[in-house]
Specification:
Helix content of chain A: 55-70%
Distance between the termini of chain B: 26 Å
Structural class of chain B: alpha/beta
Radius of gyration of chain A: 63 Å
CATH topology of chain B: Rossmann fold
CATH architecture of chain B: 3-Layer(aba) Sandwich
Number of helices of chain A: 9
Largest sheet of chain B: 5 strands, parallel
CATH class of the largest domain in chain A: Mainly Alpha
CATH superfamily of chain B: Response regulator
Number of strands of chain A: 8
Strand content of chain B: 15-25%
CATH architecture of the largest domain in chain A: Up-down Bundle
Shape of chain A: rod-shaped
Oligomer: heterodimer
Number of helices of chain B: 6
Distance between the termini of chain A: 64 Å
CATH class of chain B: Alpha Beta
Strand order of the largest sheet of chain A: 2-4-5-7-6
Order of helices and strands of chain B: HEHEHEEEHEHEH
CATH topology of the largest domain in chain A: Four Helix Bundle (Hemerythrin (Met), subunit A)
Chain lengths: 431, 126
């Protein structure tokens, strides 16, 4: 993704530029709109003033003629008012355009003032002649057409000023309208851009969601496969190990027993004990453990014949999977020996298996006391200590890191087995 | 099997390193039956290393995995002392072992007595 500018970077830059254009366009439009509005206000006042200039000139002329027709001095007051309004309006016009008048407006204003002066002078001249009793001169002057020309001149200039003001207003309006149209187009384009931006973002969101789901699946699959591989390897290892143990049982038993029937029976029993022990650890989870009590029940008790007895007592001690074989084989050999030489060779013999956890210095030891008793015992003898069974028991004890003390008493075997519990075996509680 | 054909290791002393008691006993039997003596039978790595360093024996049979640990420390000592040894392992690490100890004999559990003895003999006479 990184390295070259992505389509998203380009889209973002484009969006920012479009937004900037939109903002500028809005500001320009508002500005031009405001200018148009103030121009319109001003132009209205200007045009009204211009109209008033013309109206005042016409009123002054009308009043003068009223005076000339009936000689009534009462017409002179409106005349003077009209003249002062004429100049007042011109002054108002100049004030309205102060600082912003165009060169042609300035020039036309000067011409207007001259034309107004010329007209007012003409009107006053006629009035003065008439008041001085010089009626004929007054009428001649009146008829000379000087007044008409002066009035036309005023009208022409007023029309010019009005037209220019109208043009100015129109130009501002056109500019504002153009800006507004441009803004509308820009905003429409912006709206389109943001819509498509939202669309793209949504598509991208959907796509990345889909990718996340796919990735999660892939991770789950990989983890499941790893677990399966691990379990397969562990299973493979355990199966091979079990085959090796089974093979050892068969070959060692076969070597020891000259009678193939006896050998087969012994091997079968040992393999059966092995399978009983492993049935308790049926899962591949190394944390799954079995307990010493369960081992006794599954390996020792099934070989008992009523009314023989077995008492198993002790706390719950967990035996991890890798120690199930040696402990199971020890219990099997003890049971086999009890049946062949010890308490269970008698039909009422009893075996007591009691265990406890004891502190020996810094070590915590599991002490298993195996006591056989029969009364009276038919045949109590110690098994051959060089036999495979005895050697295997000793070896299994070494594998467990334990020790044993054996005594053969009249009632049968008395055996003390000490096993370290720190590390592999754990004591969970008391039962 | 005639007694004569079995006695092929002829008074040799063998170190056995194997953490499974049942298999260890069987290996001991196999060695004894074939005329050799068992110098020491070690079920854990620490005792095996001690014997490998100081013990007197002619050859060794090594399990690959001893109580969850690889038997390398023991094999390394034997390799340095020039004492022949064979691997007896359930784990298929033949190539790795042959690379680490050139020409070493690697037997895969479960094997027959014959294979193990042949491998020991080849190791002793190499």
């Amino acid at each position: 993704m990184s390295g070259k500018p992505s389509v998203w970077t380009i889209a973002l830059a484009g969006g920012i530029i479009a937004l900037a254009f939109g903002a500028i366009s809005v500001v320009v439009t508002l500005n031009k709109d405001a200018r148009f509005r103030s121009q319109a206000l001003r132009s209205t006042a200007v045009i009204r003033t211009i109209d008033h200039i013309e109206l005042s000139a016409v009123t002054a002329e009308t009043s003068q003629r009223g005076f000339l027709i009936n000689g009534n001095g009462a017409y002179l007051d409106p005349f003077e008012t009209a003249v002062s309004e004429l100049y007042g309006s011109i002054a108002e016009y100049e004030r309205l355009l102060a600082g912003i008048a165009t060169p042609s407006q300035i020039e036309n204003t000067t011409r207007l003032k001259e034309a107004a002066d010329f007209k007012v002078d003409e009107l006053r001249d006629v009035i003065q002649l008439y008041q001085g009793g010089n009626h004929k001169d007054a009428v001649d002057m009146f008829r000379s057409g000087r007044g008409v020309r002066a009035m036309n001149s005023v009208r022409d200039i007023v029309t010019l000023l009005e037209t220019e003001e109208q043009d100015l207003l129109e130009a501002t309006r056109a500019s504002a309208t153009a800006a507004r149209r441009q803004m509308e187009i820009t905003l429409a384009v912006l709206a389109l851009l943001s819509l498509s931006g939202f669309g793209l973002a949504y598509l991208n969101h959907v796509r990345s969601n889909r990718l996340t789901v796919v990735e999660e699946h892939a991770v789950e699959l990989a983890e499941a496969r790893e677990r399966a591989d691990l379990l397969a390897r562990e299973l493979n290892h355990r199966v091979k190990n079990l085959f090796a143990i089974v093979q050892s049982i068969i070959s060692a038993t076969g070597r020891q027993e000259s009678d193939p029937v006896v050998a087969a029976s012994k091997a079968r029993q040992r393999i059966h004990a092995l399978s009983q022990a492993h049935a308790l650890t049926s899962t591949l989870d190394a944390q799954t453990t079995t307990t010493l009590g369960q081992l006794l029940e599954s390996i020792v008790r099934p070989q008992m014949t009523e009314p023989q007895s077995l008492v198993a007592e002790g706390p719950v001690v967990k035996v991890p999977a890798q120690l199930v074989t040696p402990l199971g084989m020890i219990l099997h050999e003890l049971t086999t020996n009890a049946i062949k030489y010890g308490a269970w060779s008698d039909e009422t013999g009893a075996i007591a298996a009691k265990w406890a956890v004891e502190q020996e210095g810094e070590k915590q030891m599991l002490v298993l006391e195996w006591t056989e008793s029969c009364d009276p015992c038919r045949k109590v003898e110690s098994p051959d200590s060089k036999g495979f069974g005895s050697r295997m028991m000793s070896m299994s004890l070494v594998q467990l890191g334990g020790t044993q003390q054996q005594t053969w008493e009249p009632g049968g075997l008395r055996l003390l087995i000490s096993l370290p519990t720190d590390g592999e075996m754990t004591v969970v509680g008391r039962n | 099997m005639g007694a004569g054909s079995e006695r092929m290791l002829d008074e040799m002393t063998i170190l056995i390193v194997e953490d499974e008691a049942m298999i260890a006993c069987d290996l001991e039997d196999v060695v004894l039956v074939h005329g050799a003596k068992v110098a020491e039978l070690c079920l854990d790595l620490e005792s095996a290393m001690d014997v490998a360093r100081d013990g007197k024996f002619d050859a060794a049979i090594l399990d690959y995995n001893i109580g969850g640990k690889i038997v390398y420390p023991v094999a390394d000592i034997l390799w340095q002392r020039g004492i022949p040894f064979v691997f007896n392992t359930a784990i298929g690490e033949r190539e790795m072992l042959e690379q680490r100890y050139a020409g070493v004999e690697v037997c895969r559990k479960p094997i027959s007595d014959r294979e193990l003895i042949d491998a020991l003999e080849r190791a002793l006479h190499a």
